[in-house]
Amino acid sequence: MFSSKKAVLATLLVAGTVLSACGSSSNASSSATTAASKASTTTTAAPLTNITIALPVAEPVQSPVYLAQQEGYFKKQGLNVKIVVLAGDVIVNSALVSNSVQFTSVNAVSLLTAVSKGIPLQMACMEYNGPEWAMAVTNQLATSAHLSSSSTPQQVLSALKGDKVAVVGGAAAAPGIMLNGLLQHYGIPKSALTIFAVNSSAALVTALQHNEVQAIFDTQPIPASAQQDGAGKVVFDTTEISSLAAVPWEGILGAKSYLSANPTIVKGVCKAIAQADNYLISNPSGATSALQSTFSKLSPSLLKSAITSYKWASSAQMTSSQWTNGLAALESFHLLSKPVSSSVLSSSYTLSDLPPAS
After folding, report:
1. How far apart, in Å, do the first and last CA atoms of the chain sit?
2. Is residue 203 domain-shared with residue 66, that is, in the same domain?
3. Whose CA is closest to 124, among 239, 278, 258, 1?
4. What pLDDT does 8 receive?
5. Of 88, 121, 142, 321, which one has the greatest count of Cβ atoms within 10 A?
6. Are residues 169 and 87 in the same domain?
7. What number of CA atoms fall less than 13 Å from residue 279's CA on the CB side?
């Protein structure tokens, strides 16, 4: 939201059937044989529709897209999907507007910021609700400040006064913005801690292991990985904050012109994402096994930890009230650089392409 493997382009042609030809009774057997031969060679079903989905990262946070591809949900909707990873919102937005790619997966803050700038994008269906960042602190700090997984975000942030917290990209990147927003929300001065920039998630764990920082803040499974390696303890997760957990956060979007001109394709993509979301909710163990080859660098336990940490949207659903309440939460946690008007909010999403709720 707010990095790169290419999926293999697969094109399937599905054999169709034709009406058998009729013949005289004396040639019935011969006619049947001829008809069967024609049926196997002369007619095929319509080819799959080719589309490209651009992702900001190739990580478990994008499990619905990868799972829909791996389990054949896109193909069942008549879609041949190519997945690419494009770093940066500006690049993705340009690719959407130019129709170089047809869809992307992005968070609400990026979407609302783009639409506020006049970029005609629109969310069609949801992948998961609520921003999901977790914090792990050193074992020493956890002991001295009596921090545990039951500690509140305010307790943890108050205990970090004067300490360094490592995030990928620094204060201007998504986790840094979230961290500063939390400080403001709980009335803690920004100067209470130092946001230390690193260039990769792997560097976060290394910094914590070497006591270069006292905490790290990132999406799962990185904090859980630090805990598994004995480098620290996970002490809070933003999904614990009820008002944030209800925000429609990450979803599938495209250029408004493309969505309105291709409703069948959009509905097909959303149906596939809905199937993937429901699979992740109902069978996280099965989803972990299915996605293990995609995220081969993660152990099964870490991958499952990541999958179960996200609040996947049942049947890819979202509502207007969810967006209205979500905007209030985003503003409360200072995640938007300027106020978003009601017209910008209403034009940022559409409910017309949502699949039936199960």
Report:
1. 27
2. no
3. 258
4. 30
5. 121
6. no
7. 23
Mean pLDDT of the chain: 87
**Token code pair at residue 18:** 């034709």
Range of the domain at 340: 49-130+246-347
Does residue 179 sit in the same domain as residue 232? yes
Instruction: Indicate if 110 and 255 belong to the same structural domain.
Output: yes
Residues sharing a CB contact under 8 Å with residue 57, sequence separation 6 or more, in sequence order? 3, 85
Number of other residues whose CB lies within 10 A of the CB of residue 293:
9
Q: How confident is the model at residue 38 (pLDDT cuts 50, 70, 90)?
A: very low
- In angstroms, the CA 33 to CA 239 distance is 64
Tell me how far CA of residue 302 lies from CA of 61, 199, 210, 224, 309, in angstroms.
13, 21, 22, 7, 11
pTM of the predicted structure, to 2 decimals: 0.83
In this prediction, residues 117-132 reach a mean pLDDT of 96
182/217 Cα distance (integer angstroms) = 12
Q: For residues 54 and 103, is the Cβ–Cβ distance under 8 A? A: yes
Nearest to 109 by CA among 195, 173, 187, 189: 173
Six token digits for residue 343: 């017209």
- Going 7 to 8 to 9 to 10, the CA torsion angle's sign is negative
Dist. CA 249–CA 117, nearest whole Å: 19
Q: What average pLDDT does this structure show over 143-164?
A: 95
CA distance 357 to 351: 12
